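Following up on my earlier message about zinc ion. Here are the inputs again, as you asked, copied directly from the submission form:
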Amino acid sequence: MTGPRAEIGVIGGSGFYSFLDDVTEVTVNTPYGAPSDSLFVGTLAGRAVAFLPRHGREHHLPPHRINYRANLWALRALGARQVLGPCAVGGLLPEHGPGTLLIPDQLVDRTRSRVNTYFDGEPRPDGARPGVVHVSLADPYCPQGRKAALAAAAGRGWEAVDGGTMVVIEGPRFSTRAESRWHAAQGWSVVGMTGHPEAALARELELCYTSLALVTDLDAGAEAGEGVSHAEVLEVFAQNVDRLRDVLFDAVAALPANEPRTCPCATALAGQAPGIDLP
Ligand SMILES: [Zn+2]
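Thanks, got it. Here's what our run produced:
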């Protein structure tokens, strides 16, 4: 592939890259269809970074309609091996109120309608036939990416929560109070709508994936009031987008070089027969 290359991918909206002055818009097609939008490649702290608006630049894609396979594939095709996934979440515990930044170390999948693997046994339109592959997702996030994100937050005076479980719901509706109380009773920390299958697909492509979860509201069960409103989520996100961008950019600078990667993400397919060539 000719054109701009990137070593790091960021899945997040235009609030993160719109003011960079050397951004190039790149259209990437994948065997899985089109990503959410063009990829925007720019330089940050000497690192080439590809930004991909997860919901499209007009924010027209709800979480369950995002082509997660195309998104991760496109990032890898541009050269990215490390991916940062900032996202808005609801806090399930009173101590994780709006404005909390949490770097999760665990994930629970409560989605139900999403294509969540590249290894579905179905021949692709280009004739490639994926093998039967089972990757480990015991630890769904990259240990080195998490370290970089936590250090970046600390460096900006934002004490991020180190670890916790993100439960990912199908959406697009928010949880009922009973669902929310149940999630909290399991000991889970935050609830989101995009963290799965993003993390699982990244692992299948041997990408390093790190989630940066910004709490924008207390989820229904953790709150006595009216429950979550979309307006509230947008407002808190807007209040925090500048400092989240600072942390994100510092994390980009702190990520180790792409090769050789020493974390287990880099060898997730070792010993298996994927049947498809990774880009
Ligand atoms: Zn890794």
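One observation from looking it over: Residues 142, 144-145, 208, 261, 263, 265 surround zinc ion (CB under 6 Å). Hope that helps, and feel free to reply on this thread.
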